[in-house]
Design goal:
This protein is 51% helix and 18% strand. The chain has 6 helices and 2 strands. It is an alpha+beta fold and 146 residues long. The protein has 2 domains: 3-68, 434 Repressor (Amino-terminal Domain) (Orthogonal Bundle), CATH 1.10.260.40; 83-142, Cyanate Lyase, Chain: A, domain 2.
Length: 146
């Protein structure tokens, strides 16, 4: 089973069983955001977590094996057309240089790691309409001079 087949099967099983990413993540003992990313094929799970996720979704060892495989992180399109994902591209186009300037000013010349990284997606109630709250935390990695 490849990562695309794995993703499709997981999404179907999740929908059919009425599970949430929180439900699936609880089984694995990891964050919903990380488990979701692994189930969508962009990260991998270690065997104990992969076995638990596969079992929670009603799958066998083949699904666990697919969840354990290291991903090849690629994108089908330069800019996705899904409106929600596209808005993230829009935010980075508008605010990306601002984020870079602020990070460089506070930390120096370097980058924020996407490997040593955590993320939390939350909901913030607001009388004018609930808001999406995304918290991203990545380790700062300075560029080296030699």
């Amino acid at each position: 089973m490849n990562k695309t087949e794995m993703k499709d099967a997981i999404l179907e099983a999740k929908f059919a069983q009425g599970l949430t990413w929180i439900d699936i993540a609880k089984a694995a003992g990891r964050s919903p955001e990380f488990v979701c990313s692994a189930c969508l094929g962009m990260n991998h799970l270690e065997k104990p977590e992969a076995d638990k996720v596969a079992k929670a979704l009603g799958f066998d060892g083949e699904m666990s094996t697919a969840l354990q495989r290291f991903p090849t992180k690629t994108w089908d399109r330069t800019i996705p057309t899904d409106p929600l994902i596209y808005r993230w591209y829009e935010m980075l186009n508008v605010y990306g240089e601002t984020i870079k300037e602020m990070i460089n000013e506070k930390f120096g010349d370097g980058i924020m790691s996407a490997i040593d990284f955590t993320m939390d997606v939350g909901r913030q109630e607001d009388p004018k309409g609930d808001r999406v709250l995304v918290t991203i935390s990545g380790k700062f990695l300075p560029y080296k001079s030699w």
